Amino acid sequence: MLTYSYYSLSEAEDDTFESELTLHGLARGSVSEGPYADLVYHQRILDSWERIFDLNSVGDPDWLGDHTQNEKSIQGTFWQLSLDQVRAITVCTSR
Hints:
Layout: H1 11-23, H2 39-48, H3 61-64
């Protein structure tokens, strides 16, 4: 769940988001809980997670790392996977 963090493409974008939260009296951990819940920021956090699936996205190399599209990967976890949900299998061997 990305530790309920906003997924920014640069340090400047992250700082801007943090400043907006502070301006509205919110903190990262309080956006979706308790009396200070703010659904707008909650949705912005969730929407930012879509970026992890975009291997063509370009972010600040000093912030996200300097990886080519072929070096990027997507890692996910789930409770259960049925055989009919499998789209492809890639055999991977370690050193």
